[in-house]
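Database export, one record per block. Field names are fixed; values are copied verbatim from the stored entry.
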Amino acid sequence: CASLWARLPPGRQPGPRAAICSALRAHTGPFLGTLGRVPAVACASSSASGGSKAPNTSLFVPLTVKPQGRSADGDVGAELTRPLDKNEVKKILDKFYKRKEIQKLSADYGLDARLFHQAFISFRNYIMQSHSLDVDIHIILNDICFSAGKYPEARVLQRKIIFHSGPTNSGKTYHAIQKYLSAKSGVYCGPLKLLAHEIFEKSNAAGVPCDLVTGEERVTVEPDGKQAAHVACTVEMCSVTTPYEVAVIDEIQMIKDPARGWAWTRALLGLCAEEIHLCGESAAIDLVTELMYTTGEDVEVRTYKRLTPIFVLDHALESLDNLRPGDCIVCFSKNDIYSVSRQIEIRGLESAVIYGSLPPGTKLAQARKFNDPGDPCKILVATDAVGMGLNLSIRRIIFYSLMKPSINEKGEKEIEPITTSQALQIAGRAGRFSSKFKEGEVTTMNREDLSLLKEILNRPVDPIKAAGLHPTAEQIEMFAYHLPDTTLSNLIDIFVDFSQVDGQYFVCNMDDFKFSAELIQHIPLSLRVRYVFCTAPINKKQPFVCSSLLQFARQYSRNEPLTFSWLRRYIKWPLLPPKNIKDLMDLEAVHDVLDLYLWLSYRFIDMFPDASLVRDLQKQLDGIIQDGVHNITKLIKISEAHKLLNLQNSSVESQSRLSGTVKSRTRRNHGTKALGSKAAEPLGSGAGEKSLASRLVQQGLLTADMLKQLEKEWMTQQTEHGKGRTESGTSLTGTRRKKKEPDSD
């Protein structure tokens, strides 16, 4: 893997000297090996006889390495990279030869000055006179010449790095954006489309022409289509070759994200800007400083304090009857969202709803509804999607639960208490400086959770230890060249297994990439095209989205353009407004499919030619979804009536018991200490005796319908396996029915 040398980030590169030494050894290995042994024997003989005379190296003559002619396969190295500039290569080799440490290294290998000179001349002639070089050597020399992977444009500059550190609502991003707006040119890199849109609109409103670039959208504001000097983009889409005066990288702590961290690493190391302004948690300061040390750049840290006070209350909400205007209830599952919304509606109150899979336009519409002083909607029910990207006028954050499902670095699903970083990010949305509430409050739904919340918020945030990396298409192509019959999914596994990263880096989780690779493996596509399809962001939990990726790839492989008329037929447009929650979720999936089309349209414009028409269609769909979410409690009510959704067992009271039980157990297992709150109540016998099915339903991992379907399938399976098993299955089922608790559905 030495050929990947120059594509590796600082901290993993052996340097050009070691790379060329590796190449030299590859072509003169046997010769060097002999030289390394024979003089040693000669010296030993001299020493044994009492002499100390150095060996006579004139006895050794280096073998000439013949230049390579034209290969029948063509110049593969040039095809994978580009043709070498032989004049530039000669300059690099000559500099290599003159370095004193290289001459010392040659002596360590048994080469005196004469032999080293002869070996070097032979090697240089081989490089200069060969029509086509071995692939590995070609790529090594190309990477050294062009400094590939080392972000040559950024390395030419002595960039000024300013780290704006502070909690939520401290003004850190505001100060960075002011520098961005006052610069002659600039780029804003954000974690969300919503944030990129916000800076795009704010910049243009301030009279600073600004373009917008996200994975699915490109907007230019200049009438002639010329690029503006400023651009707001999602972090994955930033250019590392365009020069800017100022760059802003928001939420820099996401450099540790198991799936997306690579994008922040790339932006930090590669942005070609005179000033780089980083905004984020102090936990990232040490890592950023270490990474910048490898590039020879200093980091200036500016620390900010929160602009408005925030208080953790000494009492939990306990009942939705205690809600007040400006309250935001934060849930970590859609089932809880539906349940709480329904309970609020029963109490004669109106609520706005925001969760991650909603389209950006719908989220903004719900945020405007909640923020509008003249709107009767004064309560917000949301997931942690409110943690960033939306300006909300919240007085009090109420954690409905402290348990959050997550995916770890190994791709495994875990349900654990939220981290200090997550708790601070969400809690910090209360009482923002720009809202009408000048003080923020934070509490929990359940009394048993309050002490744990206080403890979580009082813990120091763990320093970030490593930055994410992601294999590039070029690296995967190199592996594919050596392993031509290996599937893309297996290539990724091999790459990850053989990757050696130091403590400052980790390889991002590739499960989503591999999922897509396996999904489209049987479709004939070139490796580069297959790689692009696999990097398309999809929700693999949505079957329609996954089947659409498959269908799009199949159409592409047949060289059949995916036209607007074809897409309309495929999604069965026009679509009707949702009549229940299932219809709403189906519409969200269709919106994701249109996002996928738009994402691919910017990579394969000839095969996905109707991006503007599809965007107009998507806006219409967004409006339909907005109407559905506006009437979400009606949809929930209809879904319950038709047994499409059963929320009776997700009531606030039953959730309180389960949540308190889980968190109490968590606290005892970890030996945590409650701070400033009434001690947690002991486990109740009723809560402890809940069946597995009941617990899964309560946690939102099973619905009542799914439970009934599982029971039917179980009974059918037993019937099909003979009378004996049928009797056993009936007995088991009967026993379960007798023991089943009243609320286990």
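Remark 1: The radius of gyration is 31 Å.
Remark 2: The longest strand covers residues 273-280.
End of record.
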